[in-house]
Amino acid sequence: MNASGPDVPVTMDIRLSVNGNDRPVTVDTRETLLDTLRERLDLIGAKKGCDHGQCGACTVLLDGRRVKSCLTLTVTLDDREITTVEGLADGDTPHPLQTAFIEHDAFQCGYCTPGQLCSAVGMLAEAAAGWPSIVTPDVRAEPGLDEEEIRERMSGNLCRCGAYVNIVAAIGEVAR
């Protein structure tokens, strides 16, 4: 309980770097990054699916690494680099994964697509850095991104429509 009573939120002024732009924001210390992005910064790409970190619809990149924004407290992110699906494109040029998702029809309703895209960007960076997954046959070798590897590495992102075959194909095309 704070000095003002149990119902008064504790807030903090922080500066977020979102998609290359510095954004000063005052946040409740209990507020998630997902809520800050959607409610305060009007970045609605990341979706609130389960709000428990189980579906991956809220996935964004934090300093280039994948995070579930529904589980990340905004107050911990002062001066960290956040990339949302809105920041993947280079100006008017879509990210190669965005183009591949369109070409491979790797979405149906599209609700999970922003999280899938951010997760795929992070996953490709992890593989390029040589990080093995649970299905990597030889953890000392450079991991190849075959279908099994892509499926395992993307397993934290669910698609209720079942567009997995096309999602894997789109990611595989970009990985090659």
Task: Count up the helices.
Answer: 5
What integer value in Å does the Rg equal? 17 Å
Q: Give the strand content.
A: 15-25%
**Mean pLDDT over the residues:** 94
Q: What's the layout of helices and strands?
A:
Blueprint: E1 11-18, E2 21-28, H1 33-40, E3 59-62, E4 65-68, E5 81-83, H2 96-103, H3 113-128, H4 147-153, H5 164-175
Parallel strand pairs: 1-5
Antiparallel strand pairs: 1-2, 3-4, 3-5
Keywords: Iron, Metal-binding, Oxidoreductase
Organism: Nonomuraea africana
Pfam families: Fer2, Fer2_2
Describe the structure.
Residues 12-88 form the 2Fe-2S ferredoxin-type domain. This is Xanthine dehydrogenase YagT iron-sulfur-binding subunit. InterPro entries: 2Fe-2S-bd (IPR002888), 2Fe-2S-bd_dom_sf (IPR036884), 2Fe-2S_ferredoxin-like_sf (IPR036010), 2Fe-2S_ferredoxin-type (IPR001041), 2Fe2S_fd_BS (IPR006058), Aldehyde_Oxdr_Iron-Sulfur (IPR052914), Beta-grasp_dom_sf (IPR012675). Keywords: Iron, Metal-binding, Oxidoreductase. The protein is of the alpha+beta class and 176 residues long. The chain has 2 domains: 11-87, Beta-grasp domain (Ubiquitin-like (UB roll)), CATH 3.10.20.30; 96-175, DNA polymerase, domain 1 (Orthogonal Bundle), CATH 1.10.150. Helices cover 29% and strands 15% of the residues. The protein has 5 helices and 5 strands; from the N terminus they run E-E-H-E-E-E-H-H-H-H. The protein has helices at residues 33-40, 96-103, 113-128, 147-153, 164-175; strands at residues 11-18, 21-28, 59-62, 65-68, 81-83. The chain has a 5-stranded mixed sheet with strand order 2-1-5-3-4, sandwiched between helices. Strand 1 and strand 2 form a beta hairpin. The longest helix is centred in the C-terminal third of the chain and has 16 residues, at 113-128.
